[in-house]
Write a structure and sequence with these properties.
single chain, alpha+beta, eight-stranded antiparallel sheet, 10 helices, 29 strands, elongated
Length: 510
């Protein structure tokens, strides 16, 4: 029995050994996995291939049209394409050609370039916040050149060259120098793979045009007629002279003579960036004379006599001026450095106040009085009544006297409207308080012919509705409330029909 069991065990061992041997051979054949490459597009499996290099080379080889369009040497896979090594026991790989056709239908290929991000600063008023802008370019050098072109448009080619070469002339008596130039927005440049279905800028000229106009669309043009000048053409096409010169850099001054038949650009600029130039300026300003009245009780009402003729003086002032996209944004005169070049002589008039009716004295009204300049002298008009930014600027912007300097009533009158409580915005055009005028006082002249708006004042307004104010009376202080780009007075006059009256043409020689 023992021998029988031993023989049975021996044969059983042989059978098991033979089974293990054949099974082992088969397992060895199926146990060596194959290396393949799994292709993903946006996280989804597209298929498997035997060679990742073969697919990448095929993509580059097939895109001759893209290479010719953008003048590039290499084309890359679409965004979101990933290729990862994997092992499998199954024969799952398909040809690179098949994978190429699948991804070609699903997503565009990419080329190497740069993405520019313009990051706008946040405003206190969230409704004024702008979304970031992304610009794709082939060459970083093209954007850098466009950057310079935009600066040249706003500060002038010659001035920019002198600034960048550190060769600005020293100011002897009067003159100006650029202290610094920068962009208000945060601008970053990053190398990137860009989809060929995106807008890709291939020249510095296109980039600079896009930065200035916000589009590559063809801008409006105008053919010069006999008798046209730059100021007239700009005004008739809702442009300021400064904007006209920006879109027509071939003209360096508004005094350049235009020739009939010339074609000029009249497109409205809508800059995507803000070029800021801080300047040191020394200039001679007119110090406007005042008219003083002496009341003569012996002369009848309605009569007057000039005792002394007035004469404007000249004061040499030193200024810090901040320009944004070619427009004065803020201007401050350092009064401590002001020098009198020519003294001012005030005009003196004796006027009668004796009644010719026998009922006592009568008083002069604003209809009989010269208008007084509403700010401290010296000062600078930074914007006139004229087209501006695609709209129409309805008054004079007067700067230079400084924040908190007094604002005087230009004539005798009655206060008919007052707005107070508006803040001075800390960042640009963000406060619509007072309809954008900010703190303001509106005075109707004593003759009832005009309403004068004194806007962007500080909160310390010195008048209330119903007050009678006299010519030269302080009614407020210069500020920057409402839609104000810097400290200044907005001085606006309207007639009884509500139409705008230009102060420089009607009441002042400015």
């Amino acid at each position: 029995m023992r021998i029988k069991n031993n023989i049975l065990g021996f044969f059983l061992s042989i059978i098991i050994g033979i089974f293990v041997f054949f099974v082992g051979i088969n397992a060895k054949g199926e146990g060596t996995p194959n290396l393949v490459y799994r292709v993903y597009l946006n996280g989804e499996t597209v298929g498997y291939i035997n060679s990742d290099k073969e697919l990448l080379d095929l993509i580059d080889l097939k895109q001759k049209q893209i290479k010719e369009k953008y003048h590039v040497d290499k084309v890359y896979p679409p965004r979101g394409l990933e290729i990862k090594e994997t092992y499998t026991y199954n024969d799952v790989a398909i040809s690179s050609e098949e994978i190429y056709e699948i991804i070609e239908d699903k997503q565009p290929f990419t080329i190497n370039g740069y993405t520019i991000v313009i990051d706008y600063p946040d405003s206190e008023d969230e409704s004024q916040n702008k979304e970031n802008i992304y610009i794709n370019v082939l060459k970083k050098e093209d954007f850098e050149e466009a950057f310079k072109d935009v600066i040249r448009a706003f500060v002038g080619s010659k001035e920019f060259e002198l600034y960048t070469t550190d060769s600005q002339p020293k100011i002897i008596d009067v003159g100006s120098n650029i202290e610094t130039i920068y962009w208000e927005e945060k601008v970053t440049i990053k190398e990137n793979l860009i989809s060929v279905d995106s807008e890709i800028f291939t020249s510095a000229n296109d980039i600079s045009k896009y930065l200035l106009f916000g589009t590559l669309d063809k801008q409006d043009t105008y053919e010069i007629k006999q008798g046209d000048d730059i100021k007239t053409v700009a005004h008739n096409n809702n442009l300021s002279v400064e904007e006209f010169l920006i879109v027509n850099p071939q003209f360096t001054s508004e005094n350049i003579i235009l020739n009939p038949g010339q074609i000029v650009n009249i497109g409205l600029i809508k800059p995507l960036v803000t070029v800021v130039a801080e300047m040191h300026v020394v200039e001679d300003l007119v110090y406007r004379f005042k008219t003083e009245y002496i009341e003569d009780e012996t002369a009848y009402y309605g009569t007057q006599k000039v005792i002394q003729e007035g004469a404007d003086g000249i004061t040499r002032v030193t200024e810090k001026v901040l320009y944004k996209n070619g427009e004065i944004n803020n201007l401050v005169i350092n009064h401590a450095l002001s020098v009198e070049i020519k003294p001012v002589i005030n005009k003196i008039i004796s006027r009668g106040i004796r009644s010719n009716s026998g009922y006592g004295f009568e008083y002069y009204t604003s209809a009989d009085s010269a208008w007084m300049w509403p700010t401290v002298n010296p000062c600078i008009i930074t914007s006139y009544v004229s087209p501006r930014w695609g709209g129409y600027h309805k008054g004079l912007d007067i700067s230079g006297a400084g924040s908190g300097s007094p604002i005087y009533s230009a004539t005798d009158g009655v206060v008919i409207d007052v707005t107070t409580g508006c803040a001075s915005p800390s960042s640009g055009l963000s406060d619509n308080c007072g309809g954008g005028y900010g703190n303001k006082v509106t005075v109707q002249t004593s003759d009832g012919l005009y309403a004068i708006i004194y806007a962007h004042l500080t909160r310390d307004v010195k008048a209330k509705v119903g007050d009678r104010v006299n010519r030269g009376q302080i009614i407020g202080y210069m500020g920057s409330s409402g839609k104000s780009t810097g400290t200044h007075l907005h001085f606006e006059i309207r007639n009884t029909l509500g139409s705008i009256v230009d102060p420089c043409k009607k009441f002042y020689n400015c």
